[in-house]
Each structure stands twice: as structure tokens, then as C-alpha cells.
């Protein structure tokens, strides 16, 4: 569990499935991520994150507001996915429900995740990927001090060839000296 002044990054609970699925049914939240999630897909996602936490000691953690215990989304780190240029590297990611956009929560949670990696893992860098057109996430990557790695941009193999979300960009931040 990671605490920041306003947030709690924690393991996933069964109670998170419903707000997670509701968040992932918002077309604006999913704009750069794909189709809305069904309840079965949301349950499977939570189960994958729980297993990842058990297997690796970290995952894309559930994100909760400390003072209200409201589920906000996720932020954390996991092994990069197969079929991407960051396979098995430390990947940082975030996704938040729309009412919480623009309040600095994603940056606060992402910085806490980066700090956690430097304190707890032997990784020399942290990586992030997103769709080419996801300007909000790319902006956060830049504000976090991540650098674009044009040489590692790719077409996401998990998406159909004609899918407009297929072009992806890659960012990296190196461990401070």
C-alpha cells in the first residue's frame, strides 16, 4: 500500500469490480483504450491484477481517495506486456474515472509509483506506452520526466490492423544517478 497526501494505492478488492466496470463503460475514459468493458471482463481484469500482485509484489494498483475512500481508477507498475517493445520491463500505467480528471491525482499517483519502483525494485528504467493520439497521457509522461523513445514506437499487435488505436508510442524514465 502506498499513501500520498490525497491518495491510497492498494491491492484490488472484489468491491472494486463494479466501479471499475462502470468507469470502463465511459466512452470518454475508453477513448484511447478500446471498447467498453463488460462485467465479466472487469472481473477478469481485477483477478489478473490480484494474481500479478501475488506473483510480483506489484501491479496496476487500485486508486482510492484517502479522505472519502472513493474508487478513482488505477495507477501502478507491472511487467510490460508481450508483443510490445517493453515486454518484461517495468511499465507504469494509470486510468481514472472522468470526474477526477484535471485535479492532479494521476500525476500524484504516478510519481508515488515511480518513487516506489526506485525504492523497491532493481529496475534501471520505467516505461510507458499509449496510443499515438492520447495527448493527456503523453502530457503526463512528459511532466513526470519521461522521454519519448521514437525508436520504440510500434503497432500494437493485440489490435486489428485497421484499428485506429493500433499506433503506439513509448516513453522511458531512467533511474536517477
TrEMBL record:
Pfam families: Acetyltransf_3. InterPro entries: Acyl_CoA_acyltransferase, GNAT_dom, N-acetyltransferase. Residues 7-166 form the N-acetyltransferase domain. SUPFAM superfamilies: Acyl-CoA N-acyltransferases (Nat). GO terms for molecular function: acyltransferase activity, transferring groups other than amino-acyl groups. PROSITE patterns: GNAT. Coiled coil: none annotated. This is GNAT family N-acetyltransferase. The lineage of its organism: Bacteria, Pseudomonadati, Pseudomonadota, Alphaproteobacteria, Sphingomonadales.
Amino acid at each position: 500500500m502506498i499513501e500520498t497526501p490525497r491518495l491510497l494505492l492498494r491491492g484490488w478488492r472484489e468491491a472494486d469490480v463494479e466501479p471499475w466496470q462502470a468507469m470502463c463503460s465511459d466512452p470518454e475514459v475508453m477513448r484511447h483504450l478500446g471498447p467498453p468493458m463488460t462485467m465479466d471482463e472487469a472481473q477478469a481484469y481485477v483477478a489478473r491484477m490480484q494474481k500479478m500482485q501475488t506473483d510480483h509484489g506489484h501491479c496496476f494498483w487500485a486508486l482510492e481517495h484517502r479522505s472519502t475512500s472513493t474508487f478513482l481508477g488505477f495507477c501502478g507498475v507491472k511487467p510490460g506486456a508481450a508483443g510490445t517493445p517493453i515486454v518484461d520491463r517495468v511499465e507504469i500505467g494509470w486510468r481514472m474515472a472522468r470526474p477526477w480528471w484535471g485535479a492532479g491525482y494521476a500525476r500524484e499517483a504516478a510519481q508515488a509509483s515511480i518513487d516506489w519502483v526506485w525504492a523497491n525494485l532493481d529496475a534501471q528504467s520505467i516505461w510507458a506506452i499509449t496510443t499515438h493520439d492520447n495527448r493527456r497521457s503523453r502530457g503526463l509522461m512528459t511532466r513526470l520526466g519521461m522521454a519519448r523513445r521514437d525508436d520504440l514506437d510500434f503497432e500494437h499487435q493485440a489490435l486489428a490492423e485497421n484499428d485506429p488505436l493500433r499506433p503506439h508510442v513509448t516513453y522511458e524514465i531512467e533511474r536517477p544517478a
